[in-house]
C-alpha cells in the first residue's frame, strides 16, 4: 500500500479512509471512519520512504504510545497505534475546526482577554503532558486547533520527539519552526519543559500583536536573532495590552531558561490572576481585596450636626482636607494629560491609506509612499461577490486609521465569486525561468518584481503571492519577487591565524573564531609528529575575506627507512659539467592522491510544500543542485575529492549543515 494514496482503502480492516487532510515530510494525514465505533477519526501514516529507518519507526511508535496515555480536553486524543501492510500509523481524535494560525490571520490580533484565555488552555494541556514526562518541543499555532465553541486542542503530542530525531538526520529541519522554538533549541542545547514555555510565550506574542517577535530573510538569521537579541516588548506594538500581561509574555520569552517561568502552572496562575482582576467585582457580587462598597451615610439630626460644627479646630481641618483633595485631583489630571500626550502625540502616528479595491501590485507603491509595508506573509484569499478576483477586500489596520508609522498592513484578497480549480504551485526558492515554466504549465500568468537580497541567489524567487495551494482561475496573475541584485557591501577582511604546530581540531576552532573556515586537508610525511599541521594556505598574518577557506597540510609522520645498499651502483657516465652539483637522475615526480568517492544521505525536513530543493557545495564549489519531491524522503549525494572536503548542504536555499568529509 502507498502511504500517500490510501483514499478509498480500509486500514487494518477497521478504518475506512475518506479523504486526505494534509501531508508533511514525515507523515500523511487522512480523515477516516472507524467502522467498529462508527465515528470519524484522523489517521497519521508514516511516509514509506522512512519505514526502512528503524530508529524513526521505533520512536514514532514509542512516542505515539506515550501520547496515547494523555487524557485532557485540551489535547487531541490518541486512540490507537499500529502497523499493517508495512505502514505505521496513529489514530487520533478528529477535530472539526481551524488552526490557531488561521484564526489569528483572520483577525490580525486577538483581544488581550481572549489571548490570555487561549494561553491558559494551551498551558493546561502542557501542564498535563509535563506531569506525564512528555515535552512537546514544537508548540506553534499550526499545531493548535480551535473548535466552534473556542475550545483549544493541542495536537502532535508524542511525535514531536520522533520529528526531532528526523531533523537531526536532516541537519536543520528544526529551523522549520524557527519562529517559535526556544534559543536553546536553535543552538542545539538542552531542552526541557521551559522550552515549551518559551514557545507558548511566542504564541501569546503573536495572538496579542498579530506579528512574530523575530523575522528575517531566512531561518538561520531568525535563529541568530533569538540567540543575540531580546524581542521588542509586545506592549510597544499594541498599547491596549495591560502591563501585567506584557510582563507575563516577556518573562515566558526570556532568552535564558532560568529567567523564565520554571513551570507552566506558574504562568497559568499569573494569567488567571490578571483575568480575575479585570472582572467587575460588582457583576458577581464579589468584593475584591482592594475595592470596597461605600456604605450610604445616614442623615444626621440637626442638633447633632450643630454640635459637631461647634467643635474647635474643625473648620481649619475641613479647609486643609479640601485643599488636599483639590491638589490631588489636579496632580492626577496633570499626570493623565502627560501620559496621554506621550502615548499618542509622541508616537508619530500616520493615516493608513485606503487599499480596498486595489490589486496587490497597485497597493505596494501606495503603502510605501505612506510609510507602510505590505505583510506579504500574512496575505489571505477569500471568495467575494463584491470584489473582483485579485482585488483587496479587507485590510488591517483599516483605511484612514491613525497608527504608528512603519507598521505592516495585512491584506485579504478576493479570489473571485467562485473558487477556482487551479492550485497555485510552489515556486519560491526556484530560479525565475523554472518558476515561469511551472506557472505557465498550470495555466497561470505572472508579474515579476525586482528585489535586492543578500541571502538569495541571483534570479531566484524570494516570495510569491498567492502562496502555494491557493485555488485560482485560469490566467490568474501570480506576483513573483525575484532577487535581481545584491547589496553593495565591502568584503570584510580578517587576519589569518597561525595554524602550523596545531592539531586539526585546534585549527578549526581558531578559524571559526575569526570567521574563516577549514578548507582542503592534505597529509604529507614529515619529521613533525603525526597529526600536527606543517603548512597552510593562505599564510599566517595575511588577510583573507571573511567566510573564505584555509587549506592545511597535516604531518603523516616519518617514512619508514629503507636499508642502504652495501655498494653504491656503478657510475657509467661522469656527470656533465653543465649540471655540476646536481644528482645524476631526476627525482621521482610526486604522485597525486587518488580521487576518492563518498556518498552522503540527505534526509528531507518536514514541511508543507510538495517539493524540496537540495543544493550541495564542496570546498566552495557547487556539486549538486536538484529539486526532489518531498515524498522521496531523502537523496544520496556523491562527493568526489583527493583530500578532506568541507561540505555545505542547503535545503530550499537555507543552509542546514556544514561538515568535513574525510577521505584520507
From TrEMBL:
It comes from Candidatus Avimonoglobus intestinipullorum. The gene is pknB. Residues 536-545, 576-586 have a biased composition (Polar residues). Residues 15-275 form the Protein kinase domain. InterPro entries: Kinase-like_dom_sf, PASTA_dom, Prot_kinase_dom, Protein_kinase_ATP_BS, Ser/Thr_kinase_AS. Its EC number is 2.7.11.1. GO terms for molecular function: ATP binding; protein serine/threonine kinase activity. It comes from the Bacteria. ATP binds at residue 44. The chain crosses the membrane at residues 320-343. It holds the Pfam family PASTA. Residues 346-415, 418-484, 490-556 form the PASTA domain. PANTHER family: MITOGEN-ACTIVATED PROTEIN KINASE KINASE KINASE 20-RELATED, SERINE_THREONINE-PROTEIN KINASE YBDM-RELATED. It catalyses: L-threonyl-[protein] + ATP = O-phospho-L-threonyl-[protein] + ADP + H(+); L-seryl-[protein] + ATP = O-phospho-L-seryl-[protein] + ADP + H(+). It is an enzyme of class 2 (transferase). This is non-specific serine/threonine protein kinase. Residues 486-505, 521-595 are annotated as: Disordered. CDD domains: PASTA_pknB (cd06577), STKc_PknB_like (cd14014).
Amino acid at each position: 500500500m502507498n502511504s500517500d494514496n490510501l483514499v478509498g482503502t480500509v486500514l487494518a480492516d477497521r478504518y475506512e479512509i475518506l479523504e486526505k487532510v494534509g501531508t508533511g515530510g514525515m507523515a500523511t494525514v487522512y480523515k477516516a471512519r472507524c467502522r467498529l465505533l462508527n465515528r470519524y477519526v484522523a489517521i497519521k501514516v508514516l511516509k514509506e520512504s522512512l519505514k526502512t529507518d528503524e530508529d524513526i519507526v521505533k520512536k514514532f511508535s514509542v512516542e505515539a504510545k506515550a501520547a496515547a496515555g494523555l487524557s485532557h480536553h485540551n489535547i487531541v486524543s490518541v486512540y490507537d497505534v499500529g502497523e499493517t501492510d508495512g505502514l505505521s500509523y496513529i489514530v487520533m481524535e478528529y477535530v472539526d475546526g481551524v488552526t490557531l494560525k488561521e484564526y489569528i490571520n483572520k483577525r490580525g490580533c486577538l483581544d488581550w482577554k481572549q489571548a490570555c484565555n487561549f494561553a491558559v488552555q494551551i498551558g493546561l494541556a502542557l501542564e498535563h503532558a509535563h506531569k506525564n514526562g512528555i515535552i512537546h518541543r514544537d508548540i506553534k499555532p499550526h499545531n493548535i486547533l480551535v473548535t466552534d465553541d473556542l475550545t483549544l486542542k493541542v495536537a502532535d503530542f508524542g511525535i514531536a520527539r520522533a520529528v526531532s530525531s528526523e531533523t537531526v538526520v536532516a541537519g536543520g529541519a528544526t529551523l522549520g519552526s524557527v519562529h517559535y522554538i526556544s534559543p536553546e533549541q536553535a543552538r542545539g542545547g538542552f531542552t526541557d519543559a521551559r522550552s515549551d514555555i518559551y514557545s507558548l510565550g511566542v504564541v501569546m506574542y503573536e495572538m496579542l500583536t498579530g506579528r512574530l517577535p523575530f523575522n528575517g530573510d531566512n531561518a538561520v538569521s531568525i535563529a541568530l536573532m533569538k540567540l543575540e537579541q531580546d524581542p521588542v516588548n509586545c506592549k510597544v506594538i499594541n498599547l491596549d495590552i495591560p502591563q501585567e500581561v506584557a510582563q507575563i509574555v516577556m518573562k515566558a520569552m526570556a532568552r535564558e531558561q532560568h529567567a523564565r517561568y520554571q513551570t507552566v502552572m506558574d504562568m497559568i496562575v499569573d494569567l488567571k490572576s490578571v483575568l480575575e482582576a479585570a472582572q467587575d467585582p460588582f457583576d458577581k457580587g464579589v468584593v475584591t481585596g482592594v475595592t470596597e462598597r461605600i456604605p450610604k451615610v445616614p442623615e444626621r439630626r440637626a442638633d447633632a450636626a450643630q454640635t459637631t460644627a461647634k467643635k474647635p479646630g474643625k473648620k481649619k481641618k475641613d479647609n486643609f482636607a479640601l485643599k488636599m483633595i483639590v491638589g490631588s485631583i489636579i496632580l492626577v489630571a496633570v499626570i493623565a494629560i502627560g501620559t496621554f500626550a506621550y502615548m499618542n502625540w509622541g508616537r508619530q502616528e500616520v493615516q493608513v491609506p485606503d487599499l480596498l479595491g486595489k490589486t496587490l501590485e497597485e497597493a505596494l507603491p501606495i503603502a510605501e509612499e505612506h510609510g507602510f509595508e505590505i505583510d506579504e506573509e500574512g496575505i489571505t484569499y477569500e471568495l467575494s461577490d463584491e470584489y473582483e478576483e485579485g482585488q483587496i477586500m479587507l485590510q488591517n489596520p483599516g483605511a484612514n486609521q491613525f497608527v504608528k508609522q512603519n507598521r505592516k498592513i495585512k491584506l485579504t484578497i478576493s479570489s473571485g465569486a467562485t473558487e477556482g480549480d487551479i492550485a497555485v504551485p510552489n515556486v519560491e526558492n526556484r530560479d525565475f525561468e523554472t518558476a515561469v515554466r511551472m506557472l505557465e504549465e498550470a495555466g497561470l500568468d505572472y508579474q515579476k518584481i525586482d528585489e535586492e537580497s543578500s541571502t538569495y541567489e541571483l534570479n531566484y524567487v524570494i516570495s510569491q503571492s498567492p502562496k502555494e495551494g491557493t485555488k485560482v482561475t485560469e490566467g490568474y496573475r501570480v506576483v513573483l519577487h525575484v532577487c535581481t541584485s545584491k547589496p553593495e557591501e565591502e568584503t570584510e577582511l580578517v587576519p589569518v591565524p597561525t595554524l602550523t604546530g596545531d592539531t586539526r581540531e585546534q585549527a578549526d576552532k581558531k578559524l571559526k573564531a575569526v570567521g574563516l573556515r577549514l578548507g582542503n586537508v592534505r597529509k604529507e610525511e614529515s619529521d613533525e609528529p603525526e597529526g600536527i599541521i606543517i603548512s597552510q594556505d593562505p599564510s599566517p598574518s595575511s588577510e583573507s575575506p571573511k567566510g573564505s577557506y584555509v587549506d592545511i597540510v597535516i604531518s603523516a609522520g616519518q617514512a619508514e627507512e629503507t636499508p642502504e645498499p652495501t655498494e653504491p651502483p656503478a657510475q657509467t657516465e661522469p656527470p656533465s659539467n653543465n649540471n655540476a652539483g646536481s644528482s645524476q637522475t631526476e627525482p621521482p615526480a610526486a604522485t597525486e592522491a587518488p580521487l576518492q568517492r563518498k556518498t552522503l544521505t540527505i534526509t528531507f525536513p518536514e514541511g508543507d510544500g510538495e517539493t524540496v530543493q537540495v543544493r550541495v557545495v564542496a570546498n566552495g564549489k557547487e556539486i549538486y543542485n536538484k529539486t526532489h519531491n518531498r515524498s522521496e524522503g531523502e537523496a544520496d549525494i556523491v562527493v568526489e575529492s583527493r583530500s578532506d572536503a568541507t561540505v555545505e548542504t542547503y535545503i530550499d536555499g537555507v543552509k542546514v549543515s556544514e561538515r568535513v568529509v574525510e577521505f584520507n
